[in-house]
C-alpha cells in the first residue's frame, strides 16, 4: 500500500483486517469452487488459456513433424485433419480470446481502482463454462472425435451426408461453450469499466488497456452472435434436418461463410486489440513518460472496431463476388490499416520523446513491433482482391495470420506475463531467462513462419496433410519444422522461468517498473479487497500525476462487500452496492449447462431434459435474499448515500 | 511437354502477369514501409537518453505523427487504386469468342467438359484441361458435392467451386507447357491429393486432341488388355465409371474413355503407367485414404491386366 502508506490518518488496523476477512475466499476446495474474486478467476483464466496454448502448440508441432518432408507416412489424413482443426479451434476459441479476457478480468478492476469485477458470479460461471469447453474439446479429440474440418467447418462438407461422424457437432457445441463464456465476460468488463471506476477517472483518463478491453468486449457482443447463428444452424441441419445450408433443398452454402466471417474477421481484432492495449501500457512505462497521443490511440481502437466489421468478405473473394462489392471490401480492408498505423506512430513518438529502457517486457515489445508490422503489411496485400485471389488459402495466409496473431497477441502477452507477473505473484521473473526465452522464441518464430510466405507463393495450399516431392516444397518445409524446435525451446525456458520465479524469484515490491496505473498502487499480490483504501485519481497516469494529498474513498462498509458505483462519463460517485459473497451456484449452473450442451450433440431432446437442471441451478443462483443477509433487492434505495467527501474530483486533463 | 512448377511469381498468362505486377508493387512498398518504421523505432531507442520531455514540447512530434498518418493514408490509397485497376484488368479477357470448359468439382477429382452445340461432340474427361495457347478460355466452375477451389497459380488466381452456383473465370496461357494446379479449398480427407494439370498447346494440336477425345474408346488389343477389359466389366468398376464404346456408362467417377492419354491418374497423384495404374487399382485407399473409390477385390492377375487395358485407352 505505498499510495496510502504516507497518509495522515491510516485506517484502523482492525478495520483493515475486517475488510480483508469480508473479501476473503472460503478455504480449501470449497473456496476454489465458490470463488467470485476477479483475481483468482483471472489467474485461472490465464493459466488455463496458457495450458491450451501449450496443447495447441503440441498439435502444431505434430503438423510440423508431418510436413517436414514430402509424402511423410507418419500421420494420415484422418488424424492430420483432426490435428489442424483442433489446433485452429484451440488457438482461436480456447486460447486467444479467453487469455485476453482473463487478463482483462484480472487487470480491469485493478486499473480502475475497483474492489471486484462487476457481476462476479457471472464471471465465475463463464470460467467454469470455458473450462468445460476445454475439457470437452480435448476429451473428444482423445476419443478420436476431434473436429476435422478446420476451425471454420464450412458446409456442405460439414453436413450430415458428407461427414456422418460426431466431429462437426463437437465443433458446433464448442462454439456454444466459447460463446456463452466470452459474452458473459464481455458484459462484466464493460460494466466494470463504465460504472466502477475510481472517482476522478473520467472517460478521458481511462487507461488505454481498459479502453482496449472495452472496445474488444463490444466487438465480442456484436460478433459472437453471428457465429452462434452459424453454428446453431449447422447443428440443426445435422440434428433435426433443417436445410439452412443444404443446396439441394433451397439452402445456401455461402450463407454460412458470411455469418462465420462476420464474426471471424472481427475475431482477429478481438484478439489483437487487447494486445495493442498491452503495448500502449508498456510503452508508457518503458519510455518513462505518458504514452503519446492518448486520444489518437483510443480513437484508433474504436475506429478499428467499427471498420473491422466491414471487411469480412475479403475471406470470401475467391467465391466470385461481383466486382463492385469486391472493390468495397478491398477498400475497407486497406483502410483498416490506417488506425493501426497511427498507433504505431504514437508508440514510436512516445519512445522518441521518452527515456526508453530495455527490460524483459520491452524485448517482447520489440518482437511485437517487427512481427506484427510485417503481418499488417501482408494483410494489406491480402485485402487487395486481385492479389488475394492468388495467395488466399495458401501457406502465405498461414504465414500472414501467424505474424498477425502471434505478433499482435502472443508477443504482447509474453510481455504482459513478464510485466504483470510481479503484481500477480509478488515475485520478479529472471531477466536472463527472459532474454533467452525471447531470443529463442523470436528466432524460432521467424524461422518457422517466414518461409511459409514463399511456400504459398509457390503454390502450397493450406490444410494439406502431405505433398508430392516434385512440388519442390520440401526444403522450406524442413526449415519451418526446424524453426518450431526453437519456438518450443523458447516457451519451455519461459515456463522454467515462471516456475523458478514463483519459488525463488526476488521480491517485487508494489511497483517494480515504476509504472503509472492504479494496479501498481496496491501491494503485490493485491489484498483480497484490492485496495484497503480505494483510490481516487487526478490524471491519466494516477501514480505519476496524483499529488501526495490525493483523497481516498471513505465511507464504504468493511463488514459487507460494499462497492462504490460511479457515473459513466465523469466517474462521479453515484451509489454503493453490496457485491455477492462466494457462491457455489455458478459452478453448478455451469455443470448443468455443460450437460445440456454435450447432450444435445446426441439428441435434440437433451435441450428439453437438460433445461430442468439448468433451471434449478439458476433458481438457486437468483434466490432472493432477506434484507439482513445483504443481497441486492434493496438496491439502490438504501445505499443512496454518497460516500465521498463533498469535493468534486479535479477536472480537466493534463 | 515442359512441366512448369506452380508459382505466383512465374506468370504464364495475362492475368497472372497483372497480379504478379501488383505483388511486386506491394512487395516493394511494404519493404520500404517496414524498413522505415523499424528504422524510426530503432532511432528512437538509440537517441541519447533525455530527461522526461514536458508534454507541452510535443508539438513537433504531433506534426510528425500526423504527417506519417497522412502519408500512410496516401500510400494505402495508391495501393487501393492499383488493386482496383488490376481487378478490372483480370476480370475478363473480353474476347468475342473463347473456348468454353465446364469444370465440376468432386471429392477428390475434377470433371472437365468441353461444350459444343452438338451434344454428341461434347467431350468429358477428368483432371487434365487442354487449352489452346494464346486464346482466351472461359471456365465455368461449379461443384457436385462440397466446396472446392480451382487454382493454377501460373495462370490466374483461384475461384471457388460452390455447389448450387456456377461462376465463370477467364484464363489464357501464353506459352505451351503443362501447368500444375491444385484444389485450394479444404474439401475433406484427400484435399491434399486433388491436383490437376492444364496442358497449353498450339491450336492445331489442341484441335487434334479434342477430336481424339470425341472418339469412343479403342478396342483392347492383346490378351492382357482383353482380360483387363473383361475384368473391368465384370467387377464393380462399371458402377461408377464410363468407358465410351463399352457397356460401362456410370457417371459417379472420372470418365476413363481416354484415361491412357492423360499424364496422371488419381488427380495428379500417380503417373499413368501400367505400374502406376496397377498400384492404384490394387489399393486406392492406401494411396489416397478416404477417397471415394473402394478397395478392389480383384485377383493380382486381373489388376495387372486391367492396368494394361487402361493404359492402352489413349
Question: Would you mind describing this structure in some detail?
Answer:
The complex is a heterodimer of chains A (654) and B (314). Chain A has 654 residues and is mainly alpha-helical. Chain A has a single domain, classed as Cytochrome C Oxidase, Chain A. Chain A has helices at residues 2-5, 13-22, 28-34, 38-67, 77-111, 120-142, 167-195, 208-240, 253-287, 294-308, 323-335, 337-352, 360-383, 385-391, 395-425, 431-457, 474-504, 542-545, 585-599, 605-622, and strands at 562-566, 573-578. In chain A, strands 1-2 form a two-stranded antiparallel ribbon. Mean pLDDT of chain A is 92; it is low at 1-9 and 631-654. By secondary structure, chain B is an alpha/beta fold. Chain B has a five-stranded mixed beta sheet with strand order 4-3-2-6-9. Chain B has a four-stranded mixed beta sheet with strand order 1-10-11-5, with helices on one face. In chain B, a hairpin with an 8-residue loop joins strand 3 (109-114) and strand 4. Chain B is elongated, with a radius of gyration of 27 Å. Chain B starts with a strand and ends with a helix. At the A-B interface, helix 5, helix 11, helix 12, helix 13 and helix 14 of A face helix 1 and helix 2 of B.
CATH secondary-structure class of chain A: Mainly Alpha
Task: Write the CATH fold name of the largest domain in chain B.
Answer: Immunoglobulin-like
Number of domains of chain A: 1
User: How does the major sheet of chain A shape up?
Assistant: 2 strands, antiparallel
What is the strand arrangement across the widest sheet of chain B?
4-3-2-6-9
Stretches of chain A where pLDDT is under 50 for at least 5 consecutive residues are 1-9, 631-654
Q: Kindly, what is the distance between the CA atoms of the first and last residues of chain A, rounded to a whole number of angstroms?
A: 25 Å
Q: β content of chain B, as a range?
A: 15-25%
Amino acid at each position: 500500500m505505498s499510495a496510502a502508506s504516507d497518509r495522515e490518518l491510516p485506517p484502523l488496523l482492525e478495520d483493515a483486517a475486517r475488510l480483508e476477512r469480508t473479501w476473503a475466499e472460503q478455504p480449501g476446495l470449497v473456496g476454489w469452487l465458490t470463488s467470485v474474486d476477479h483475481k483468482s478467476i483471472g489467474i485461472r483464466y490465464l493459466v488455463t488459456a496458457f495450458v491450451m496454448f501449450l496443447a495447441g502448440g503440441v498439435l502444431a508441432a505434430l503438423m510440423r513433424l508431418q510436413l517436414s518432408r514430402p509424402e511423410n507416412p507418419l500421420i494420415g489424413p484422418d488424424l492430420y485433419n483432426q490435428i489442424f482443426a483442433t489446433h485452429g479451434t484451440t488457438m482461436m476459441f480456447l486460447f486467444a480470446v479467453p487469455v485476453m479476457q482473463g487478463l482483462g478480468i484480472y487487470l480491469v478492476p485493478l486499473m480502475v481502482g475497483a474492489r471486484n469485477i462487476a457481476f462476479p458470479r457471472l464471471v465465475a460461471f463463464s470460467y467454469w463454462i470455458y473450462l468445460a469447453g476445454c475439457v470437452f474439446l480435448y476429451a473428444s479429440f482423445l476419443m478420436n472425435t476431434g473436429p476435422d474440418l478446420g476451425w471454420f467447418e464450412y458446409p456442405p462438407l460439414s453436413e450430415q451426408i458428407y461427414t456422418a461422424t460426431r466431429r462437426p457437432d463437437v465443433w458446433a457445441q464448442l462454439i456454444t461453450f466459447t460463446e456463452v463464456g466470452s459474452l458473459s465476460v464481455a458484459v462484466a468488463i464493460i460494466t466494470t469499466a463504465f460504472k466502477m471506476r475510481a472517482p476522478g477517472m473520467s472517460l478521458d483518463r481511462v487507461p488505454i488497456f481498459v479502453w482496449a478491453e472495452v472496445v474488444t468486449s463490444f466487438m465480442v457482443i456484436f460478433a459472437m452472435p453471428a457465429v452462434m447463428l452459424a453454428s446453431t444452424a449447422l447443428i440443426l441441419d445435422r440434428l433435426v434436418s433443417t436445410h439452412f445450408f443444404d443446396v439441394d433443398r433451397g439452402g445456401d452454402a455461402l450463407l454460412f461463410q458470411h455469418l462465420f466471417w462476420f464474426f471471424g474477421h472481427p475475431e482477429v481484432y478481438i484478439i489483437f486489440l487487447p494486445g495493442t492495449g498491452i503495448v500502449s501500457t508498456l510503452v508508457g512505462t518503458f519510455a518513462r513518460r505518458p504514452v503519446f497521443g492518448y486520444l489518437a490511440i483510443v480513437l484508433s481502437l474504436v475506429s478499428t472496431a467499427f471498420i473491422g466489421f466491414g471487411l469480412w468478405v475479403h475471406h470470401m473473394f475467391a467465391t466470385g463476388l461481383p466486382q463492385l462489392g469486391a472493390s468495397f471490401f478491398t477498400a475497407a480492408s486497406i483502410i483498416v490499416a490506417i488506425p493501426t498505423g497511427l498507433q504505431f506512430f504514437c508508440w514510436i513518438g512516445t519512445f522518441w520523446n521518452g527515456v526508453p529502457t530495455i527490460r524483459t517486457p520491452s524485448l517482447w515489445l520489440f518482437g511485437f513491433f517487427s512481427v506484427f508490422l510485417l503481418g499488417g503489411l501482408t494483410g494489406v496485400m491480402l485485402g487487395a482482391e486481385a492479389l488475394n485471389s492468388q495467395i488466399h488459402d495458401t501457406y502465405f495466409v498461414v504465414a500472414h495470420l501467424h505474424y498477425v496473431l502471434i505478433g499482435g497477441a502472443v508477443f504482447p502477452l509474453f510481455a504482459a506475463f513478464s510485466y504483470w507477473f510481479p503484481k500477480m505473484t509478488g515475485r520478479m521473473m529472471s531477466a536472463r531467462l527472459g532474454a533467452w526465452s525471447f531470443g529463442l522464441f523470436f528466432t524460432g518464430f521467424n524461422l518457422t513462419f517466414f518461409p511459409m510466405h514463399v511456400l504459398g507463393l509457390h503454390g502450397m495450399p493450406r490444410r494439406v496433410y502431405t505433398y508430392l516431392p516434385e512440388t519442390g516444397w520440401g526444403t522450406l518445409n524442413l526449415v519451418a519444422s526446424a524453426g518450431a524446435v526453437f519456438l518450443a525451446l523458447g516457451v519451455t525456458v519461459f515456463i522454467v522461468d515462471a516456475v523458478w520465479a514463483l519459488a525463488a524469484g526476488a521480491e517485487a515490491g508494489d511497483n517494480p517498473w515504476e509504472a503509472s496505473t492504479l494496479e501498481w498502487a496496491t501491494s503485490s499480490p493485491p489484498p483480497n479487497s484490492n485496495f484497503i483504501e480505494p483510490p481516487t485519481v487526478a490524471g491519466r497516469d494516477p501514480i505519476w500525476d496524483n499529488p501526495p494529498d490525493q483523497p481516498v474513498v471513505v465511507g464504504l462498509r468493511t463488514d459487507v462487500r460494499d462497492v462504490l458505483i460511479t457515473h459513466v462519463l465523469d466517474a462521479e460517485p453515484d451509489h454503493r452496492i453490496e457485491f455477492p459473497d462466494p457462491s457455489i451456484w455458478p459452478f453448478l449452473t455451469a455443470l448443468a449447462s455443460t450437460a445440456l450442451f454435450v447432450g444435445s450433440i446426441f439428441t435434440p431432446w437433451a435441450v428439453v431434459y437438460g433445461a430442468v437442471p439448468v433451471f434449478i441451478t439458476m433458481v438457486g443462483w437468483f434466490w432472493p435474499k432477506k434484507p439482513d443477509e445483504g443481497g441486492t433487492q434493496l438496491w439502490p434505495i438504501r445505499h443512496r448515500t454518497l460516500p465521498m467527501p463533498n469535493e468534486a474530483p479535479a477536472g480537466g486533463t493534463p | 511437354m515442359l512441366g512448369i512448377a506452380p508459382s505466383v511469381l512465374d506468370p504464364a498468362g495475362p492475368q497472372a502477369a497483372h497480379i504478379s505486377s501488383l505483388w511486386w508493387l506491394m512487395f516493394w512498398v511494404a519493404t520500404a514501409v517496414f524498413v522505415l518504421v523499424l528504422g524510426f523505432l530503432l532511432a528512437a531507442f538509440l537517441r541519447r537518453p533525455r530527461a522526461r520531455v514536458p508534454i507541452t514540447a510535443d508539438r513537433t512530434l504531433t506534426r510528425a505523427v500526423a504527417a506519417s498518418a497522412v502519408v500512410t493514408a496516401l500510400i494505402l490509397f495508391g495501393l487501393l487504386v492499383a488493386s482496383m485497376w488490376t481487378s478490372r484488368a483480370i476480370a475478363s479477357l473480353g474476347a468475342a469468342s473463347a473456348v468454353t470448359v465446364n469444370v465440376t468439382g468432386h471429392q477428390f477429382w475434377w470433371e472437365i467438359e468441353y461444350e459444343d452445340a452438338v451434344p454428341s461432340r461434347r467431350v468429358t474427361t477428368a483432371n487434365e484441361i487442354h487449352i489452346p495457347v494464346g486464346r482466351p478460355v472461359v471456365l465455368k466452375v461449379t461443384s457436385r458435392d462440397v466446396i472446392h477451389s480451382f487454382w493454377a497459380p501460373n495462370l490466374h488466381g483461384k475461384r471457388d467451386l460452390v455447389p448450387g452456383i456456377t461462376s465463370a473465370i477467364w484464363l489464357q496461357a501464353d506459352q505451351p507447357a503443362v501447368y500444375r494446379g491444385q484444389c485450394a479449398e479444404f474439401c475433406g480427407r484427400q484435399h491434399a491429393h486433388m491436383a490437376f494439370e492444364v496442358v497449353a498447346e498450339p491450336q492445331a494440336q489442341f484441335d487434334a486432341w479434342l477430336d481424339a477425345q470425341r472418339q469412343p474408346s479403342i478396342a483392347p488389343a492383346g490378351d492382357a488388355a482383353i482380360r483387363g477389359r473383361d475384368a473391368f466389366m465384370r467387377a464393380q468398376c462399371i458402377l461408377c465409371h464410363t468407358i465410351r464404346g463399352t457397356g460401362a456408362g456410370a457417371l459417379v467417377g472420372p470418365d476413363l474413355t481416354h484415361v491412357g492419354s492423360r499424364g496422371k491418374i488419381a488427380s495428379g497423384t500417380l503417373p499413368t503407367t501400367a505400374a502406376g495404374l496397377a498400384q492404384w487399382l490394387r489399393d486406392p485407399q492406401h494411396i489416397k485414404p478416404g477417397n471415394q473409390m473402394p478397395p478392389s477385390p480383384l485377383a493380382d492377375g486381373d489388376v495387372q491386366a486391367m492396368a494394361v487395358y487402361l493404359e492402352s485407352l489413349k
